[in-house]
Amino acid sequence: QVQLVESGxxxxxxGGSLRLSCVASGFAFSNSIMSWYRQAPGKGRELIGxxxxxxxxxxEENFRKGRFTISRDNSExxxxxxxxxxxxxxxxxxxxxxxGSQGFWGQGTQVTVSS
Length: 115
What we know:
The chain is mostly beta strands and 115 residues long. Helices cover 0% and strands 53% of the residues. Strands 2, 4, 5, 6, 9, 10 and 11 form a seven-stranded mixed beta sheet that branches. A four-stranded antiparallel beta sheet has the order 1-3-8-7, with no helix packed on it.
């Protein structure tokens, strides 16, 4: 069955970095558009960006300030989200998603930015 497993979240101090991973199984990952989303406390889920291939990713406008990077390794069925210079407002649950008519969400990984 389709599975998406996120990992790499945790507690980090302001200015720190994290790399989140999303390991996929049960579908043709290399042919799939994959996305990262986040949901901050008390807010709706927002799209961070998407990847259609190893060199094909796009970030939403709010995330195009050089702190976030999406990448993927099709040989490992894994998508990554590199986050640098994290700030308290980046505190959220981060989700990966398989887009498309048979879309699917991962369970999410918590990122907390606090001193």
